[in-house]
Amino acid sequence: MTIDARAPQLETRVPTEDTVVSLPSKLTAEDPFEPLSVGAMVDRVAGMAVEKAAHPWAFFMRSLVGGAMVAFGALLALVVSTGVKTPGVASLLMGLAFGMSFVLILVSGTSLITADMAAGLLAVLKRGMSLGAYAFLIVVGLIGNILGAFVFVTICGAAGGPYLGAFAERAATVGALKAGQPFWTALLLAVVCTWFLQTAMCMFFKARSDVARMAFAFYGPFAFVIGGTQHVIANVGFLGLPLLLNLFHPGAPRAGISWGFGHDGLLTNIGITTVGNFIGGTLFVALPFWIIARLQRRQI
Prior knowledge:
- It contains 11 helices and no strands.
- Helix 2 crosses helix 6 (131-159) and helix 7 crosses helix 10.
- Mean pLDDT is 90; it is low at 1-29.
- 48% of the residues are buried.
- 70% of the residues lie in helices and 0% in strands.
- It has a single domain, classed as Glycerol uptake facilitator protein.
- It is globular, with a radius of gyration of 20 Å.
C-alpha cells in the first residue's frame, strides 16, 4: 500500500459534492505534515477498498498474509505475558507486543477483515462499490484472514518446544477467558475492539508523515489488547493456539475450549466477534466519519 505524502496542489475548479475542498485561497501552500481533512481521509480509505475489490485473487493473498501477521501478534503477546502475575502489567506487555502486527499489515499493504469492513462501507456510501462487491470483500477477506491465522498457529502448535509448559498454560488461560464470556459481553467487547482499531486505521490514512502513520497503526491494536476486547482474527490465534498445542501434544492444557459451536467453542466465538467487529467498524467509525465529511462539504 503506497500513500502519497506530497502536499496536494490548490485547484481553481468549482468543488462538487464529492470533491475535497481546498484550504482558503489566502493560504499559498499547505504544510506537507498537516493532517488531511476528514473528507480527504474518507476518500483514501474508500479508495483502498475499491482497489482491493478490483483484484480478488490478490486480495485473497493479502488476506492470507494479514491473518498470519495477526496470529503472530497473538503469539508474541502470549510469550511476553507468560509468568507475569500482575494483570495490568501482563495486559500492557501483551499490547506492546501485539501492536506491531497492524503496523505490518497497513505498511506492507496486506489486509485485515475488520479494516475492510469499515473501508468497504465508506466505498458503498460514496457509491464507489456495490453492496454485492462489499459482501464479496467481507466474505473473501474473512476466509483469507482465518486461513492465514490457522496456518500460522498450526505451525506453532506442531512445533511445540518453547510453546509448551508455562506458555501453553498461559495460552489456555487467555483462550478460555475469551471463549467463556457470555454472548452479550463478547459481542459488546467486539464492538469496542473495532471502535478502537478502525479509528486508528482512519487516522493512519489521515496522517501525512510516516512516523504519525506508524504511531496510529500501532496504537489501535495496542489499545484493544490491553482493553481486553475481542477481535475475530486475533481470537483465532488466542483460541487456536491452545487447541492445536493440545492436538499435537496431548499433555498441553486446553482449559475446556472446543472447536465447535458450544459455549466455549472456537466457531461460536468467531461468529459472535465477527458480528460485533462489523458493528463497531461500520456504525461507530465509518458512518460517523462519512457524515462528518458530508456536513463539512455542504457548509462550504
